[in-house]
Amino acid sequence: MALTTQRRSAKVFATLAAVSLGLAACGGSDDGGSDDAGSDSGATKIDCSVYEKFGDLKGKEVTVYTTIVAPEDGPHIASYKPFEDCTGVKIKYEGSREMEAQLPVRVKGGNAPDIAYLPQPGLLKTMVATGKVIPAPPETEANVDKNMPDWKTYGTVDGKFYAAPLGANVKSYVWYSPSVFKDKGYEVPKTWDELLTLTDKIATDDPDSKPWCAGIESGDATGWPATDWVEDVMLRTAGPEVYDKWVAHEIPFNDPAVATALAEVGKILKNPKYVNGGQGDVKTIASTSFQDAGLAILDQGGCYMHRQASFYAANFPEGTKVAEDGDVWAFYLPAKDETSKPVLGAGEVTAAFRDAPEVKAFQTYLSSTEWATERAKTCGTGGCLTANINVDPELLKNPIDNLSAKTLTDKSATFRFDGSDLMPGAVGAGTFWKGMTNWITGQDDKATLDYIENSWPKS
């Protein structure tokens, strides 16, 4: 059974409401130290009785491999502490921007991690096909059924459940400086045409800067931010039903609807008058890291806007106020009109590659409300969305997570999972990334779409 976007209508709003309740972030003053395992002086003690179900794991180690790197890795690593302290296990965290490309190599070479955070359901399907992914234990599946039922499909392949949802994010955002907009008299656009009009006005008003900054460099995963642009615009120009057909390859990748979306993206990303603020010409988008790209919003002579997901908040320098009245904030990437609100989002799933009690215990912990709550306590930078409906909503403190909750629960919103993440791994995490990188550096629209279409695995 191929993983595709779910054609949901009434059900989608239940899903989005579930996600919003799982959003979690706070000031991070509590490190979750344990009551009897050498916690730091003054740290809040925890009740280890809730961890007794995992058993005594002293002397055991679990390795975790993920795309989540500094500074976004901090809340994850901190969220393991009570589990480690109370069970005795050691969690060895490895974050890498090359994870998507290197994981298949490591699995084939017999050097798989114990747990991998897979950012694409399509990659999960590819890994399951190797025969090396261990089906999730009953305890993990029970947690997902209780805490994240509407996201279970993203961890399921051919009717078998392998991987629990972990984080979630909203991608349909544009970061900007509220104070600069106010000083310039610019208003947040409400439609796509207004966004293009604003873009052109900024380019005219301030020729020494650029309306947009962008960066798609991400090591072996270079190109993924450009695929997000296409997906977001595809939802706006073609609509969710055609988007679903595209993701499922019920229409070809070089269909006229996809060509229209790519051309619309090109109006911004391939216009030298509009990009790449603080970096250089259009081609520098390919060599600018996605982590660094939006920082130019804070610089005079940089850029005014940067399209990136909710998790991007963690990349601004320490001390940056991320709020509606702060140094940086985000507005919804507008649709063609104000009556519709397509929302692009994504998240990770946790897959296991070793059948051992400590691995099963950790995979189960990551699907629990205890973990989601602990992550809430350790996260102060935003981007801490989960699909867990049983996290205390009072933990929702961070402004960007509040904005994300409002975006996801808006009754006019239509949610779709990141398309490239749902496509076969060879396309979604392969030729789509590479094709968009080549597009940025000069390849034309038709050649790009034909290249990706021709790479689609034959059934």
Structure in words:
The protein is α/β, with parallel strands linked by helices and 459 residues long. It has helices at 10-22, 74-79, 81-87, 99-108, 121-128, 138-147, 178-184, 192-205, 224-237, 240-247, 256-269, 284-287, 290-293, 357-366, 369-378, 399-409, 419-422, 425-440, 445-455, and strands at 61-66, 90-95, 115-118, 156-157, 160-161, 164-170, 173-176, 210-212, 303-307, 329-332, 341-352, 385-386, 413-417. Strands 1, 2, 3, 6, 11, 12 and 13 form a seven-stranded mixed β-sheet that branches. Strands 8-9-7-10 form a four-stranded mixed β-sheet. A two-stranded antiparallel ribbon has the order 4-5. Helix 5 (121-128) crosses helix 18 and helix 18 (425-440) packs antiparallel against helix 19. The chain is globular. Mean pLDDT is 88; it is low at 1-42.
Q: Short description, anyone?
A:
By secondary structure, the chain is an alpha/beta fold. It has helices at 10-22, 74-79, 81-87, 99-108, 121-128, 138-147, 178-184, 192-205, 224-237, 240-247, 256-269, 284-287, 290-293, 357-366, 369-378, 399-409, 419-422, 425-440, 445-455; strands spanning 61-66, 90-95, 115-118, 156-157, 160-161, 164-170, 173-176, 210-212, 303-307, 329-332, 341-352, 385-386, 413-417.
Could you list some keywords that capture this structure?
459 residues; alpha/beta; seven-stranded mixed sheet; four-stranded mixed sheet; 19 helices; 39% helix
